[in-house]
């Protein structure tokens, strides 16, 4: 005779405890997002070097101790802001590409998704005061990390036939980085209607695309896998920066 296990029956107390935990987690996440958004706005307005944890707490309307329970330092809070901003840009980039039936707009959407986010755009500008000393302290690590990511994406897009395969991945990666800084800097001093994103993106796309424009479907699949992997990596980086234990879902 087969012994069929009985279903687990949760009592009213267990249900109330579960709902309470879920509610607390959601409240904590909403509070953290409010804190990070306030921090981004203050960093943009005054720069990180002129913004204190107390300033962020007052702007958000929470106790300063609340900030330190979630982030051990202002550096950690700034790191969270930057990592989450990159994740948001990546999701916006993928969403743009997914709904665009054209095969030759991947580069344009990469540019546009970045420039639509003032905080990330400011962090990419070499003379920006937004992230000030944070970037000076972490620039080498962040630059190497970004180069590795960009090169991995370039190689995957080359393999998928979306980018020219006759150029070295290192060259394409360097070119992408160099070209992106020009429109980014120009965007800070140029009215929105005159921003040169599309012209630069179209030029780069024509220069780097293989004959015929490449395989759009394969390119999108590469982007999906890549962005999922990057999202997970950024989540791990943020957890390490905040010194959160494994499995913490904050």
Describe this structure in words.
The chain has 250 residues and is mainly alpha-helical. It has a single domain (15-242), classed as Orthogonal Bundle (Tetracycline Repressor, domain 2). It is built from 10 helices and no strands. The protein has helices at 12-46, 53-60, 64-70, 74-99, 106-115, 118-124, 132-159, 169-189, 197-208, 216-242. Helix 5 runs antiparallel to helix 9 (197-208) and helix 7 (132-159) crosses helix 8 (169-189). It is globular and about 60 Å long.
- Spell out the helices and strands N to C: HHHHHHHHHH
Beta-strand proportion:
under 5%
CATH topology: Tetracycline Repressor, domain 2
CATH architecture: Orthogonal Bundle
Structural class call reads mainly alpha
CATH H-level name... which superfamily? Tetracycline Repressor, domain 2
CATH class bucket: Mainly Alpha
Distance between the termini: 46 Å
Please report the total strand number as a whole number: 0
Task: Show unreliable segments.
Answer: 186-194
- Sheet of most strands: none
Entry summary:
The protein has 250 residues and is an all-alpha fold.
Task: Give short descriptive properties of this protein.
250 residues, 10 helices, mainly alpha, 0% strand, Tetracycline Repressor, domain 2, single chain
Question: What topology does this entry show?
Answer:
Blueprint (H helix, E strand, L loop, with lengths): L11 H35 L6 H8 L3 H7 L3 H26 L6 H10 L2 H7 L7 H28 L9 H21 L7 H12 L7 H27 L8
């Amino acid at each position: 005779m087969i012994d069929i296990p009985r279903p687990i029956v949760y009592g009213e107390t267990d249900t109330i405890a579960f709902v309470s935990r879920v509610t607390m987690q959601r409240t904590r996440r909403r509070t953290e997002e409010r804190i990070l958004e306030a921090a981004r706005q203050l960093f943009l307005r005054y720069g990180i070097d002129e913004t204190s944890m107390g300033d962020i707490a007052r702007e958000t309307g929470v106790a300063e101790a609340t900030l330190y329970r979630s982030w051990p330092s202002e550096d950690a809070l700034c790191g969270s802001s930057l990592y989450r901003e990159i994740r948001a840009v990546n999701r916006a980039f993928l969403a743009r590409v997914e709904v665009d039936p054209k095969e030759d707009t991947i580069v344009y959407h990469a540019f546009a998704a970045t420039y639509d986010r003032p905080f990330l755009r400011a962090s990419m500008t070499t003379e920006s005061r937004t992230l000030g000393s944070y970037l000076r302290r972490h620039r080498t690590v962040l630059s190497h990390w970004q180069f590795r990511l960009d090169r991995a994406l370039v190689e995957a897009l080359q393999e998928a036939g979306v980018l020219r395969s006759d150029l070295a991945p290192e060259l394409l990666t360097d070119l992408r980085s160099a070209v992106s800084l020009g429109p980014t800097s120009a965007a800070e001093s140029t009215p929105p209607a005159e921003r040169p994103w599309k012209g630069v993106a179209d030029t780069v796309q024509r220069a780097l695309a293989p004959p015929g424009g490449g395989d759009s479907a394969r390119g999108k699949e590469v982007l999906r896998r890549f962005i999922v992997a990057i999202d997970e990596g950024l989540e791990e980086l943020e957890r390490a920066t905040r010194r959160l234990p494994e499995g913490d879902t904050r």
